[in-house]
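User: Sequence recovery, please. Input:
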């Protein structure tokens, strides 16, 4: 059972408006947010929810905001995974090319002048 919030308590613990998701950008987690920023904001939301001080309405708003931050984090992680996969494919391709027998220049027909 959650206790009533004291008037002087930390507003970020339960007030969804006190957690600034965009740092100057549009409200809510946006792709313009960096991964670290979105992750820290998500951690703040989780801490606010875990404190148990939020009303049901505030908790729902915090949960929705947390979902936005989680989507931003997932988008950054998916992008990083795609880049790593691309680098791995390029590395494997370069390795295969380096293992092929070098073309003997004497076997090639000289160009006509």
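Assistant: Recovered sequence (113 residues):
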């Amino acid at each position: 059972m959650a206790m009533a919030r004291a008037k002087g308590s930390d507003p970020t613990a339960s007030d969804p408006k006190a957690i600034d998701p965009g740092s100057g950008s549009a409200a809510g987690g946006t792709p313009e947010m960096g991964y670290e920023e979105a992750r820290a904001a998500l951690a703040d939301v989780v801490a606010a929810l875990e404190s148990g001080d939020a009303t049901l309405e505030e908790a729902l708003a915090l949960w929705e905001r947390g979902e936005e931050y989680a989507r931003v984090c997932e988008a950054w992680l998916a992008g990083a995974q795609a880049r790593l996969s691309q680098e791995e494919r390029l590395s494997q391709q370069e390795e295969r090319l380096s293992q092929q027998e070098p073309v003997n220049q004497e076997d090639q027909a000289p160009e006509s002048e």
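The helical segments are 35-51, 56-99.
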